[in-house]
């Protein structure tokens, strides 16, 4: 099964996904720069995605905890989800998500020489 | 030496679980440690992100929460009397004469030690910055992520954004001094303490607080002077609120921060180390826990504990180059038991 991810830089990635894996894990393990700083514990909001409109009703609805965590995300709408809370299944084959800009991992810092 | 200067054996950057356990391992080697952490409390991610969440993979502890793990570590390291500097960010690091390091925090505190241990996890916790165009131009003049002095906001038109404790606490505390105060949140439910929400609702009933459903998407003003905040409410429906100050409270996120300027090799914002001492590319600077990387690295708390133990052995040789550290067990060594204040 596959997952399509639109990144904030405008690129689109079609990723093979395994049943039972969290969408956040699929994105992370394919090496795309997703922040996901709490590691999937529904304890931050740095895996915020907007799911394709046609997929909203097909997903298990967000828990109260996920809705609370989404208060820490930006430009939240009815398509907003924390993708660590979406588990891949056959029904979700072809799922399309767009990663919110605040959920992009920081670009690698440049090494700066220090005096002394 | 001035009041805000101190000398110690080891400076630990980060007071998360791995930084705390480093105090223990260093303490067994009779090394004193001082810790710097940008948070106002110990525990790092365990305390900030998931204090109530269960952790199941700490050896011999079948389950504990992030806060319980922190509390137990604090109890375990108490005999070693670590000195904490909370609410301070390690800002710069320089080598001084006699090979020691001089670390300066963002409050101007200076710490000097022969060994630096970076246990900074994912970096510094800093306030989340809303992706509003040109928001940087207003930071410090019209956009504030923290309230240092309530008086600063007297007589001002304030917009507070968010639905957690910080947003609600400051709504309640600033409403009496503000010229006007509007709380903006994306929904009618709040994550904040119910008592604070009740207080906010009472202020709203008195007309001291206005509540709007929506999210800030734009700023209007010039030269850093804020005139209005544009709020979006649903699709295509937006409006302006006249304001001198926007206070966005969306929680914290981790940024590598000034550690990037410490002169260490970096690999994807992680610090490469060896696996016998967990030392960085710079001798006498160690990196342990989530912030380091090496072949096979797993970001687990237990890995950080192991790294702390080996680091302490090597740190000892920098602090006491003329001495040999005798390896002992806490179960059998009366010397270690005296250090632990149990014998």
Describe this structure as you would to a colleague.
The complex is a heterodimer of chains A (116) and B (343). Chain A is of the alpha+beta class. Chain A has a single domain, classed as Beta-grasp domain (Ubiquitin-like (UB roll), Roll). Chain A is built from two helices and five strands. Chain A has a five-stranded mixed sheet with strand order 2-1-5-3-4. The longest helix of chain A has 7 residues. Chain B has 343 residues and is of the alpha/beta class. Chain B folds into two domains: 209 residues, FAD/NAD(P)-binding domain (3-Layer(bba) Sandwich), CATH 3.50.50; 122 residues, FAD/NAD(P)-binding domain (3-Layer(bba) Sandwich). Helix content of chain B is 22%, strand content 27%. In chain B, helix 1 packs parallel to helix 3 and helix 1 packs across helix 6. Chain B is elongated, with a radius of gyration of 23 Å. The mean pLDDT of chain B is 96. At the A-B interface, helix 2 of A face strand 7 and strand 19 of B.
Share of residues in helices of chain A: 10-25%
Q: Flag low-confidence runs of chain A.
A: 112-116
Number of strands of chain B: 22
Radius of gyration of chain A, in angstroms, nearest whole number: 15 Å
The H-level CATH homologous superfamily of chain A, spelled out, is Beta-grasp domain
Tell me the name of the CATH homologous superfamily of the largest domain in chain B.
Answer: FAD/NAD(P)-binding domain
Terminal CA distance of chain B reads 35 Å
Largest sheet of chain A: 5 strands, mixed
Taken together, the total number of domains of chain A comes to 1
Distance between the termini of chain A: 54 Å
Mean residue pLDDT of chain A: 93
Instruction: Report the helical percentage of chain B.
Output: 10-25%
CATH C-level class of the largest domain in chain B: Alpha Beta
Structural class by secondary-structure content of chain A: alpha+beta
Strand content of chain B: 25-35%
Q: How large, in whole angstroms, is the Cα Rg of chain B? A: 23 Å
Q: Biggest sheet of chain B: strands, sense, closure? A: 5 strands, parallel
Strand order of the largest sheet of chain B: 6-3-2-10-21
């Amino acid at each position: 099964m596959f997952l399509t991810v639109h990144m904030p830089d405008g690129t689109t990635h079609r990723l093979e996904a395994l049943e039972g894996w969290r969408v956040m894990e699929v994105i992370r393990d394919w090496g795309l720069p997703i922040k996901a700083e709490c590691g999937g514990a529904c304890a931050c909001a740095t895996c915020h995605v907007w799911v394709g409109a046609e997929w909203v009703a097909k997903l298990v609805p967000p828990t109260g905890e996920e809705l609370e965590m989404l208060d820490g995300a930006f430009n939240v709408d009815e398509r907003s989800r924390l993708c660590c809370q979406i588990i891949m299944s056959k029904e979700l084959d072809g799922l399309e998500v767009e990663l919110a800009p605040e959920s992009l991992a920081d670009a690698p810092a440049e090494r700066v020489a220090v005096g002394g | 030496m001035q009041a805000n200067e101190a000398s110690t054996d080891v400076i630990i950057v980060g007071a998360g679980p791995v930084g705390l356990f480093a105090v223990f391992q260093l303490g067994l080697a009779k090394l004193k440690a001082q810790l710097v952490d940008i948070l106002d409390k110990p525990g790092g991610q365990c305390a900030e992100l998931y204090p109530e969440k269960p952790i199941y993979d700490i050896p011999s502890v079948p389950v504990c929460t992030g806060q319980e793990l922190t509390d137990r570590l604090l109890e375990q390291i108490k005999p070693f009397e670590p000195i904490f500097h909370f609410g301070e960010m390690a800002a710069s690091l320089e080598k001084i004469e006699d090979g020691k390091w001089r670390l300066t925090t963002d409050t101007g505190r200076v710490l000097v030690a022969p060994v630096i241990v970076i246990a900074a996890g994912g970096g510094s916790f800093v306030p989340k910055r809303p992706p509003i165009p040109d928001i940087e131009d207003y930071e410090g003049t019209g956009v504030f992520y923290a309230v240092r002095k309530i008086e600063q906001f007297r007589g001002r038109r304030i917009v507070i954004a968010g639905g957690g404790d910080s947003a609600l606490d400051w709504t309640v505390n600033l409403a009496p001094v503000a010229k006007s105060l509007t709380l903006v949140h994306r929904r009618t439910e709040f994550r904040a303490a119910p008592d604070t929400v009740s207080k906010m609702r009472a202020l709203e009933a008195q007309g001291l607080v206005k509540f709007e459903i929506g999210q800030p998407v734009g700023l209007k003003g010039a030269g850093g002077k804020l005139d209005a905040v544009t709020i979006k409410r649903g699709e295509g429906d937006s409006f302006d609120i006249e304001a001198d100050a926007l206070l966005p409270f969306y929680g914290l996120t981790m940024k590598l921060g000034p550690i990037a300027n410490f002169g260490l090799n970096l690999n994807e914002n992680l610090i490469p180390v060896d696996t016998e001492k967990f030392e960085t590319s710079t001798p006498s600077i160690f990196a342990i826990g989530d912030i380091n990387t090496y072949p096979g690295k797993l970001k687990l708390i237990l890995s950080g504990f192991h790294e702390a133990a080996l680091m302490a052995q090597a740190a000892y040789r920098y602090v006491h180059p003329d001495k040999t550290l005798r390896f002992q067990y806490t179960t059998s060594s009366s010397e270690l038991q005296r250090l632990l204040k149990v014998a």
